[in-house]
């Protein structure tokens, strides 16, 4: 691969945007943390005041989208997500700002404190990451939501929403900048870009941008990972599984499997694979299959699960033989891949090699199976007798959610404000002569490495 | 850039290595944590027993290196770092294994525990990242050191050392595998590769490898970042600065500046830039400059600092005018870039835009300057009146160090065992019917989100 530093027509614009974000971030570090909540309040007030302008822009986006919908170029669900004029939607967006403001501040927390030696203290203190580049779908309220999270955590952000929401996103960004200009947070703390070419130029700005967060499918995440040196916290596929173990209680299995599959099929935490313990093929499995077919779920079955249900009348309509590819597929719709396994270890092995390490649930009464499941699975969320649909920042009580990370570093699973911080070490010498390592390594001073109470940060 | 999936001659070998590492990692997750220490002990025993074989291979590496040294193709310091037969070196390597074994286990720690609702508990538990690819310099003992850290933290690892240490690294890897084959940890848990082409093929194995850790210069880190989708925890440049503020105490300034620059000039935590408050130009600065020149440090000065010391006799030998590039340079030798600033804010601004965000120290008695320094600097280690040379995992009391990360995500600054873990969420329902979100969102059950005592993990 070649170096991603590009020199296309938009690269100088991208550099200017990224540099402005970095400067805004650096300036904001000396602003008192309480100003972040004042900024959030100012944004809420401006948006309330200019509601009509926002809805007017949104109407234009909606009209364009409906035109494309009638030509079959957009999906109905996309158009519906665009609409800010639906009852309660705008107010919910405003309330979201206040909700974020009321969360605990994630920065300035001491996570490690040691006396290195006499008069020499070391604190590890949480701080913002820096400049975020967030790429998301055509949902205009996400502009406001991400802006609020970035401000609360002290990170500057560059936002890019789906192109169908461009008019709404643009006015929302302008109003956010207008609100910030009345506060101590620089107005360029939150910026928006509108075109894909700007994104590709921004991906070369690793000098100024610290983290890229693509919210979207696997393809978007991989394409970004292929084109930047900047760390990527991506939300890729959600290929989640439920495994019904030998000791499963029927009612638990029925309730959890049916909800995990059918509650919201386009969600990343919906089940796409069902694993059945071989002992259940003649007993629980046909009941479960009937229940799924009642919910119009098509079953792609391996030979054993297929033959166990072929006498059920509905099966001719809903059941087909599976292919290997089905077990790697995020259907996002009414299709479920089904497979027989002989024990929990085999289930874990299948999931580790086929899933997207997102969320998987076991139905079992056996403590040993639970333990093998939770220890052996390499997934962000390992559940016992609970629906995969619980995998969500709000349901976890994290307050709000930046996204669900399928990565293995920094933050994993539902990411709250905590996932938007890193830390720095602060060391202060109170010795008359300052502190050198020679005092310790060539002199008389001894390293104590004594734990200190983790209280307030030193500065 | 093109997709990094390669199909060169070594790509199938690389895939086999990466897959074997992944399988070893997955198998090891069900092995009791205490077995990790037994494996470390077994490695120590085998290495003790086979010391002669190791030293024989090392002798061959040394002879080849000395040949290259005499042709001027290798540096003396590289050859000296290769040598495992120096007094105490081999024993120190063995002791390192025992030291790692005695550290607290970083996995299985509960970092968040909540009751989601009645009978439904959620725990966030630290766990290994998975498979690490570690690339390091030609220091054979690092093979053993990294293997010990990987085993202790439960991560499988693929190692690649500098080519000059190949014979020693190969035998060490074989002995580690031999030791592991007598334990419950799979022998492919630690593997070595020997060529650069294997590395580039391994960088395409993002399906199996979770984190790349290049220990080396900026160029190595950037080249790896350009060629992989796998997250990179790199140790890039160390462009560290000391700033002498208006209120600095002379003795502190002299001691800290001189040590930061001269103690070990090739270290990443050595100072490369010195910032002087303008009020000190006629007073403290000439004394400091004399002291640095006594230590044979060449000073690259801006006009103000240059004119303030041009009457010192030694200056004709040691002082030259600086260029902008000097302030971006990691000299790794007896050269220091010097610049005047008018206040701490200007110093912070200079460092944020010129440094590598590694370690910077202020010399001051002023609390406000300290606060601006520690809050405003975007560096991993922000010091007050202390030498930059303290930036080190052992000096921090982290027990041992994987490296020093100059990144902004996952882990920053000196990285100990804690930097080799991530977490997973474990959720368990104890309800008679299992748990669904419908119970909460369409039924009578209420989310409680009550904090639980963070004790043992549930499994």
UniProtKB/TrEMBL annotation, chains A, B:
Biological processes per GO annotation: L-proline biosynthetic process
Family: Belongs to the gamma-glutamyl phosphate reductase family.
Family matches, as CDD domains: ALDH_F18-19_ProA-GPR
Limits of the Aldehyde dehydrogenase domain: 128-297, 327-393
Pathway info: Amino-acid biosynthesis; L-proline biosynthesis; L-glutamate 5-semialdehyde from L-glutamate: step 2/2
Function per UniProt: Catalyzes the NADPH dependent reduction of L-gamma-glutamyl 5-phosphate into L-glutamate 5-semialdehyde and phosphate. The product spontaneously undergoes cyclization to form 1-pyrroline-5-carboxylate.
HAMAP family: ProA
Keyword Oxidoreductase annotated: yes
EC numbers, comma separated: 1.2.1.41
UniProt cross-references to Pfam families, sorted A to Z: Aldedh
Protein's recorded name: glutamate-5-semialdehyde dehydrogenase
SUPFAM superfamilies the record matches: ALDH-like
Enzymatic reactions: L-glutamate 5-semialdehyde + phosphate + NADP(+) = L-glutamyl 5-phosphate + NADPH + H(+)
Organism in which the protein naturally occurs: Kwoniella mangroviensis CBS 10435
Keyword ATP-binding attributed: no
InterPro entries documented for this protein: Ald_DH/histidinol_DH (IPR016161), Ald_DH_C (IPR016163), Ald_DH_N (IPR016162), Aldehyde_DH_dom (IPR015590), G-glutamylP_reductase_CS (IPR020593), Glu-5-SA_DH (IPR012134), GPR_dom (IPR000965)
């Amino acid at each position: 691969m070649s170096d991603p530093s590009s020199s296309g027509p938009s690269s100088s614009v991208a550099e200017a945007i990224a540099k402005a974000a970095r400067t805004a971030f650096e300036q904001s570090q000396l602003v008192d943390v309480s100003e972040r909540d004042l900024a959030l309040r100012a944004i809420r007030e401006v948006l309330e005041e200019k509601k009509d302008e926002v809805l007017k822009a949104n109407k234009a986006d909606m009209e364009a989208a409906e035109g494309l919908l009638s030509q079959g170029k957009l999906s109905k669900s996309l158009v519906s997500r665009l609409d800010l004029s639906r009852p309660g939607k705008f107010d919910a967006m405003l309330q979201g700002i206040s909700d974020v403001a009321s969360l605990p501040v994630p920065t300035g927390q001491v996570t490690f404190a040691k006396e290195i030696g006499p008069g020499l203290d070391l604190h590890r203190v949480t701080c913002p990451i820096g400049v975020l580049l967030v790429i998301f779908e055509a949902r205009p309220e996400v502009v406001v939501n991400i802006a609020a999270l970035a401000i609360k955590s002290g990170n500057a952000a560059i936002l890019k929403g789906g192109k169908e929401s461009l008019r709404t996103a643009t006015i929302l960004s302008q109003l956010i900048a207008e609100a910030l200009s009345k506060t101590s947070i620089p107005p360029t703390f939150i910026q928006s870009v509108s075109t894909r070419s700007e994104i590709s130029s921004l991906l070369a700005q690793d000098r100024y941008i610290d983290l890229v967060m693509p919210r979207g499918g696997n393809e978007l995440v991989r394409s970004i990972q292929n084109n930047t040196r900047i760390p990527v916290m991506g939300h890729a596929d959600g290929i989640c599984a439920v495994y019904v173990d030998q000791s499963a209680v029927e009612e638990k299995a029925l309730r959890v499997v049916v909800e995990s599959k059918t509650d919201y099929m386009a969600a990343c935490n919906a089940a796409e694979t069902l694993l059945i313990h071989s002992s259940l093929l003649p007993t629980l499995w046909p009941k479960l299959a009937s229940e799924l077919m009642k919910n119009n779920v098509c079953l792609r079955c391996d030979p054993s699960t297929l033959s166990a249900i072929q006498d059920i009348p509905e099966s001719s309509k809903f059941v087909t033989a599976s292919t290997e590819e089905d077990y790697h597929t995020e259907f996002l719709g009414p299709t479920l891949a089904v497979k027989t396994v002989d024990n929990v270890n085999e289930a874990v092995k299948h999931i580790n090699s086929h899933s997207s390490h997102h969320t998987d649930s076991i139905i079992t009464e056996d403590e040993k199976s639970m333990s093998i499941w939770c220890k052996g699975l390499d997934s962000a969320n390992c559940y016992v007798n609970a629906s995969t649909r619980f995998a969500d920042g709000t349901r976890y009580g994290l307050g709000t959610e930046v996204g669900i990370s399928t990565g293995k570093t920094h933050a994993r699973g539902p990411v709250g404000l905590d996932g938007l911080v890193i830390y720095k070490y602060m060391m202060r010498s109170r010795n008359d002569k300052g502190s050198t390592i020679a005092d310790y390594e060539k002199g008389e001073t001894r390293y104590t490495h004594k734990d200190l109470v983790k209280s307030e940060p030193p500065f």
